[in-house]
Design brief:
By secondary structure, this protein is mostly beta strands. The protein contains eight helices and 37 strands. The protein has a 22-stranded antiparallel β-barrel. A five-stranded mixed beta sheet has the order 3-8-9-6-7. The chain has a four-stranded mixed beta sheet with strand order 24-25-29-28. The longest helix has 15 residues.
Amino acid sequence: MYQRFNHFSTRTLFVLFGLLASIAAAQADDATDDAFSDFGELDLAALLDAPVESASGQRELISEAPAVIEVITADQIRAWGSSDLYEVLSHIAGIENIEDHWGRTLTNIRGSHAALFNNKILLLVDRYPVYEVGNMSSMLEEIPVSAIDRVEVIRGPAGVLYGTNAYAGVVHVITEDPKETSGSLSIGGGRMLSPEGALDDDPWDLEFRTRAAHTWDSGTLRLDVQGRKLPEWTAEAVDAVIGSTAPGQHADDAFLRDERRLSGLGRVTQHFGDHSLRLLGGYFIQKKYKWGFLPWVEIESRPSEMQDWYADARWQWTASPQSVVRASIGYQHNDQYNEAGTIPALASLGLTEEAVVTVDTNRLSLSLGADHTLADGDLTLQEGLDLAIHFFEDYAMTFRPSGQLAPGVPQLNFGANNYDLNAFVQAGWKPVERLSLLIGVRGNLFVPGQIDRNLPKPDPRFTPNPRASIVARLHDTLTAKLLYGRAFRVPSVFNMFVAAAGAIFGDPNLKAETVDTAELAFDYKPLEHLSLRLNGYVNVSNNDIVFAPHPNGIGVKYVNAEGTIARGVELTTRYLFRDLLDANASVGFQEASERDTGNYISNVPRLMGSIGATLRLLDGDLKLTPTTRIIGARGDFSGTALLDATLYYDPLDWFGIGLVARNLIDTVVKDVEPIRKETRGGVRQNQPRTLTLWLTARF
């Protein structure tokens, strides 16, 4: 493992530290370093048009941001009783979560479907990208919800600001900045309900959340840990609707059973005059049992386990109010274990035993960057340059029936070093008070390489990514936005270099996936405490990375497909009535089709939405929140509506109690055989009906 690393480590590190020393003499700044964190102090009217920072890198109001962006606050997360980010995102129009056959949750935004991995959205934690190293898959369950101050969600491309993976959208988690020494402990327990509404005999599901925060004159410390155990599920108890896979992907029907999860997130910041140092680290372990079917693998109560931990140290020098220089070093380790079942395609090779897949990946990341912002009257100019180098050491993948190495199926073990050189420039101009224009472009030079001196090096590939926007305030209460943007996703190490058991093959010459999006959006505030946001969009993707039959007739390989077209309309509204009522609705209509055939992709639901309200009683100490989530028809299936309800009582400064009921109404699928036969899509499983009691103590 370490012998191969030594081939490049010493020389490369000397070069990098030399670059760091030279760049440290430059001048630069991060215009958004002082993040806005006062949502709890905003009045009702300000909440409807709150400041955001994820759309352009500058602090601005939601109505004026050059993107379709939603903000979810910690208060809303508590009111909904959300246990993870997937549940949080399910309240936003155009966002759908599905389960794949490995037991992973995938997030699809506006019909841009994840292909086996959750790598078409970008997860940021305080601007730090968090994704699994080999497949570039964002795992939203890694982030404890107790750490969240707010979530800024961009629907649509954001490649100019954030680079790869900001493809269908960005989920930017902004953690709470502690103002004093504090902490809390929350413990919840509940039971599944049978389809008839009675308590099930299965064990209780348990969950805990704990946090601790401390602040001093020049720094802060924040730790959050969350654990979760769900009881074993049965096919009869699971509330299921039809899910989806990417065009050209294999179909899968999957139910999850007996899930256990532990996640932790820590952050330390220290300021030294114009310099600052931030340490960010996380740990995540997840164990699941899954049941399901796939055309090329049969699964029956198979265990799945993932372990991931990461650490990032980031130094920043604010040389002037306009300039910043930054450098970071990060390390990530990821282990995965899956019992994949029997693979019919390998029977011809005499491999009829059940397969076990293990993946072991280490990544060292180094990055250098500088940003500059020039404001001159009505003109703002931002420039940035970033060099990121990822050393994938020992990307090891084994495919072992019954735990033994199969004859003729060697262990896959390789390393890779990928280089990303990014430069972006973005200009904003406000010629008159009610009109603002923005144009920008990012150039990404991606240089992949496998650490095997006997293999040819793949060619470098360049991807330009432009954006443009016009934001016009047509009236004091009405703003219109015309937006265009392109985003990209460079192929992952797995996409390029995998060669697993003669069944899955990578292609080192894959092109980057790209998507072009045009949007027209309106932000209307007819009343002081009422907002309406309506937008329509068209997505055109190119070079989608999908599976195709391998020429050997047995396995599959990654290829670039022509792509898809997705179009839709989204409506979001929110009404605040004094301190008594917070009503909201988010509804989206969408459809997608394959560009090469024009066929409608039946796995994309035409309608998705969420409608809910929070009623505050007893001077706000008691909150009642019913929410209905809708997943519309797809293919031959009619969709479903889910009803959740949360009751939270917070009578004392140090104590609170909550009751969360999930899926009070829903369609229960007891026989999955018709699903298996009649649809190419997977089963999108929702949590079964549960009733959970929460106790929270604060200090």
